[in-house]
Structures are given as structure tokens and as C-alpha cells.
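Subgroup meeting minutes
Present: P.N., E.W., G.H.
Scribe: E.W.

1. P.N. recapped why we're keeping a running log of single-chain structure predictions: easier to compare across weeks, and new members can see raw inputs and outputs side by side.
2. G.H. added today's entry (94 aa).
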Amino acid sequence: MYAAMRAHRTGTHSPALAQGLAVFSLGCGALGFFVLSLLLGPLAILTGYLALLSARPFGARGRGERRGIALAKAGIVLGAVVLALYAVLLTARS
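Output recorded in log:
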């Protein structure tokens, strides 16, 4: 995670790091529907955001990098949905 923040600050970009973080974000978001929602939801949002930070500027993207960005965005959305669903279920129990 620190490598993504360092890449954003220094301007060096690693497509492999961005793609790995994006896949991890999507996995956490999908898994959060079944177990550990409160932990995996924010983790999906955080790693998706870091994947977006470590991606290259728009003009220099390749095909694989665009796919990684789409996976990162999907992970962020899934993480937010998991947290919203957790909040709804938590208030419905009360």
C-alpha cells in the first residue's frame, strides 16, 4: 500500500502494482458480502483508491491498465455497497 502512495507522490507508476491492488480490492468487495463485512468493505475501498492512485495518467494507459482501473472502480463500488448493506441490516435488527 505504501508503494502506491509513493508512486503517486514521485510520479513513478507501476502497472503490476495497480493491477494487483485492483484485483485485491474487487476480491475484498465480493468476499465482504459473505464474511467480515465491516473489515472487508473499507479494505476494498482503500485498496481500490490506492490502485487508482498508482495508475498512470489517462493518455499513457494501455489496455491492461484500463482493465485494472475498471476493477479498482468495481472494488470501490462493491466495498461501498457492502458497507451500506451492513448498515441497513444493522439498523433493521434494532
